[in-house]
């Protein structure tokens, strides 16, 4: 199925009016819910062409029109156990991944053991770090296993529970995405409060991307009042939150970089950036110099490569860089050289600090309390790009790597 369109929704996250001021509870500080709450309405739908689909020789048809999108309960397998669909990694990519790296299969859902829950996943996340996990190399997180279902952030509804405190009907977040049904230990799930935000928000603005932006700009490269702040991949999940947070933290000028004129326009018109660069339109360094002639104080680097080179050139003495990601290098097939102008870090006495959000999970309650307030008062805008159905999850992932998303790229698996 080439040149097909997949259905995308774009919408601003709506927060329930019954927002509560804070969030208590263990781990992430999110409060258990007695029952599953329905999501608020989303915005307009649109079709966006993506040229990559899961491969046809997978064990199930990838034509969504011929598939029940999400069974209400797991269907029975040959031996009577429940069956769900999942996406497996079947080949490691060299360079840019493609549909041939994935396979959609039906798989028996394991029986529940004590202290486990069965979750019907309703949303799953596709994230840039997953590209690294497709390679078989040592990193901060283990590689995906060949022939096994991929993993990643997901949210869903508990449909069976052997865990005190996680009732059937609760909404939970966890890390067994890329499948319709997940069996996991209760300790590996977090009950989320869907009365303060739609459940999918916990994969985006109230999840890892939001916390990443918050930690990067309050701890890794703290923004000070009056700063000029530059954010790359600014129209994405981390970037859209980061630009708005920079302003809240007192930045005088916030500049974003994104691919294409429409994204650049939206950074200014919809996400409150003062200026935007379309990095595909020409040199990042010269465009940054044009919009920040006096230089910059803080750079949140999601991209690496020419963006980091440009930022090093533009930073003031004493400038700060949060090294959050380097997506321009993730498909590289040979070692990527560092920025040719790195020695500027010496002469300008710059601070370049790497960060991993997983080191900062304790700050979730603090961040969520703030972010839910900002969402409720309309001063934090959150956007998602939604792809429908597990069979489209690889296309969503590949599309995200190429910039098909504005805000957080999500896959909706069911209601
Ligand atoms: N350190 C951490 O703990 C942590 C946590 C979360 C995310 N991250 C990192 O943060 C970055 C953003 O993650 P995200 O989840 O928010 O993803 P995202 O920005 O929502 O999506 C990825 C975006 O990368 C951009 N992109 C792809 N290739 C590019 C290139 N060659 N040059 C410039 N931009 C390119 C695309 O946007 P355009 O259309 O603008 O090209 C695409 O939409 C990634 O590097 C990710 O690895 C790090």
Describe this structure in words.
The protein folds into 2 domains: 1-18 and 27-61 and 84-91 and 100-188 and 382-415, Quinone Oxidoreductase, Chain A, domain 1, CATH 3.90.180.10; 209-358, Rossmann fold. The protein is built from 9 helices and 18 strands. The protein has helices at residues 129-133, 208-220, 237-248, 261-269, 284-291, 305-314, 344-347, 364-376, 393-402, and strands at residues 5-12, 45-49, 75-76, 82-89, 102-108, 116-125, 154-161, 171-174, 181-185, 190-191, 228-231, 253-258, 275-278, 296-301, 315-323, 351-354, 383-388, 408-412. Strands 1, 2, 6, 7, 8, 9, 10, 17 and 18 form a 9-stranded mixed β-sheet that branches. A 6-stranded parallel β-sheet has the order 13-12-11-14-15-16, with helices on both faces. A 3-stranded antiparallel β-sheet has the order 3-4-5, with no helix packed on it. Helix 2 (208-220) crosses helix 3 (237-248) and helix 5 runs parallel beside helix 6 (305-314). Bound molecules: NADP nicotinamide-adenine-dinucleotide phosphate. NADP nicotinamide-adenine-dinucleotide phosphate binds next to helix 2, helix 3 and helix 9.
